[in-house]
Amino acid sequence: MKFFIDTANLTEIKEAQDLGVLDGVTTNPSLMAKEGITGEQNIIDHYKKICQVVDDNVSAEVISVDFKGMIEEGLKLAALDKKIVVKVPLIKEGIKATKYLTEKGIRVNCTLVFTAGQALLAAKAGAYLVSPFIGRLDDAGHNGADLIKQIVQIYRNYNYKTWVLAASIRHVPHIIQCAEAGSDVITAPFKALMGLLQHPLTDKGLAQFLADHEKVKQKF
Ligand code: E4P
User: Fold this and answer.
1) Ligand 1 close to Cβ of residue 28 (< 6 A)
2) For the chain, which domains are there?
3) pTM for the whole structure
4) Considering the chain, what percentage of its residues have pLDDT values greater than 90?
């Protein structure tokens, strides 16, 4: 399973990259705004900085909601760096833009996916990634992990090459549920990714090992 980090915060991206297990980054307009990055040039510069940190897979989202605007923005974003994956919302114009950009050799991430039907359309249009938002589904009283299972099964049935990227992850159990469901990729906030490291018995056990080692060291 591939691990992406869901943030536009460069410090977090660098720290996750340093761990050696990061495969990519997802951003969205809200995450960019959270970091105070506004204005076209600043946004472009920020994507370039992210691309300098990670090896591949930097999802950069278009703002336009019409086909012409989406492809103009998509072409511009893709030209910034080979690592860029153009992120488009799963709406009618987005599916058209996915097909167009994919045929131009540009990788597309179809975002804001909440149903298996939407995921099926994304795969038909040739999307490189499909992003079902499991946390938001859970928040609305549905079961996000069930949607991941459903999409994985459908893509398997027809051998679609689109990667399932479980998004809107809130915590460690979400990551484990997605791994069990066979998601190709998860994108998680820094805190959830680092949460994978934690267990109190690991800390307790390590403290005991080090204390025992100290005792023996003093004897010799
Ligand atoms: C995915 O690419 C999105 O950026 C993200 O996962 C949205 O998650 P949220 O529901 O926490 O905003």
Assistant:
1) yes
2) 2-218 (3.20.20.70)
3) 0.95
4) 97
